Amino acid sequence: QLQLVESGGGLVQPGGSLRLSCAASGFTVDYYAIGWFRQAPGKEREGVSCISSSGGSTNYADSVKGRFTISKDIPKNTVYLQMNSLKPEDTGIYYCAAPLMTCTRGIMGAVADFGSWGQGTQVTVSS
User: Fold this and answer.
1) Regions in the chain scoring below 70 on pLDDT
2) Which of 23, 30, 49, 61 to pair with 116, CA 20 to 30 A apart?
C-alpha cells in the first residue's frame, strides 16, 4: 500500500524559506514519479513540481520556477521541496502524491488512479 506523509509546513514571512518533506512507504521513491501539489483557499488544487523516478527530470510551475527546488533522498525514501523567496501567494495546503503518469521537463502528469496522496501540510506566508 502506497503511503505518503508530508511535513515541514508552517508560518513564514515573505522572502523566507521552508523545506517540505514527503516520506514514502509501500514503495521506493526511485520507482515512481512523485509530485507536489498545493491548494490555496478558494482555489483549485494545482501542480507545483514533480520529479521523475530516476530523478533525471523535474518540472516546475511557472509561478515557482527559480524559487522552488524538488529533490529526493533514496536512502531516506523521502522527496523534498525546498521553497525560497516565499510570497503570500504561495500560501496553501501542500500535498505530495504518487505515482504521476509522467514527469518530464515539459509535462507534469496526473496522479495515477491507483495512486496515493498525503494528508497535506499547511504553508502560510504572511508578515
Assistant:
1) none
2) 61
To which residue does cell 530523478 refer? 55
As a whole number of angstroms, the distance between CA 11 and CA 32 comes to: 30
Assigned C-alpha cell, 8: 515541514
**Secondary structure string (H, E, C) spanning 50-65:** EECCCCCCEEECCCCC
Residue 44, pLDDT score: 96
Query: What b/e readout covers 41-61, taking b as 16+ CB neighbours within 10 angstroms?
Result: eeeeeebbbbbbbeeebbbbb
Amino acid identity, residue 6? E
Asked whether 9 and 18 are in contact (CB, 8 A), the reply is yes
Q: How many residues does the chain have?
A: 127
